[in-house]
């Protein structure tokens, strides 16, 4: 009888094309976004030398495969009334996250049956966006993890309208 959990399998899954700690030859440049893999991490603001190894970084590979690491679902009448403001909060969180961790990106923003979904390249960014919206606008936040905690569905919902001033 095997006792290996899915979480353990995933934590050793360094062969996954999405695994952010995978090692690459140096220098490697991403053929999607031009990030350079340097000293063991994908780094902003570097220029790769001619002849550098070329590969897709984990974030660009997720974009290419349309395979997000997290999805944020936004809905409710309050959301519809404050849609632009809430979207700006989400985009601003991406900007802040990406400055430090360039693999954290929004992949798409699109309407669904009840509101809007925002797909991200990893679960940290999905959670960060959900928490920032919750802090600024209250409502209900619910985060569900799966795939050994490597995928997050983040649900934020608010229906009520604010009182007129
Ligand atoms: Zn890339």
Structural write-up:
The protein has two domains: 52 residues, no CATH class; 90 residues. The strands form two sheets. It has a five-stranded mixed β-sheet. The chain has a four-stranded mixed β-sheet with strand order 3-2-1-4, with no helix packed on it. The N terminus is likely disordered. With 165 residues, it is an alpha+beta fold. It binds zinc ion. The site of zinc ion has 8 residues, from helix 2.
The number of strands is 9
> Which ligands are bound?
zinc ion
- Across the major sheet, the strand order is 6-7-5-9-8
Q: What gyration radius follows from the Cα positions, in whole Å?
A: 18 Å
Discrete helix count: 5
What form results from the Cα inertia axes? elongated
Number of domains: 2
> Helicity level, as a percent range?
25-40%
Largest sheet: 5 strands, mixed
Keyword list:
disordered N terminus, binds zinc ion, alpha+beta, 5-stranded mixed β-sheet, 4-stranded mixed β-sheet, 27% strand, 165 residues, 5 helices, 2 domains
């Amino acid at each position: 009888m095997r006792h290996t959990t899915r979480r353990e399998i995933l934590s050793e899954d360094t062969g996954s094309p999405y695994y952010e700690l995978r090692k690459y030859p140096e220098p490697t440049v991403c053929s999607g976004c031009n990030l350079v893999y340097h000293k063991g991490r994908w780094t902003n603001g570097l220029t790769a030398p001619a002849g550098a190894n070329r590969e897709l970084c984990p974030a660009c590979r997720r974009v290419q495969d349309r395979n997000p690491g997290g999805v944020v679902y936004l809905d409710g009448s309050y959301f519809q009334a404050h849609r632009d403001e809430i979207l700006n909060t989400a985009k601003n969180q991406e900007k802040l996250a990406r400055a430090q961790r360039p693999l954290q990106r929004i992949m798409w923003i699109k309407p669904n049956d009840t509101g809007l979904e925002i797909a991200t390249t990893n679960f940290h960014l999905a959670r960060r966006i959900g928490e920032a919206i919750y802090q600024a606008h209250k409502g209900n936040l619910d985060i569900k993890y799966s795939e050994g905690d490597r995928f997050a569905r983040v649900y934020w919902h608010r229906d009520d309208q604010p009182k007129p001033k």
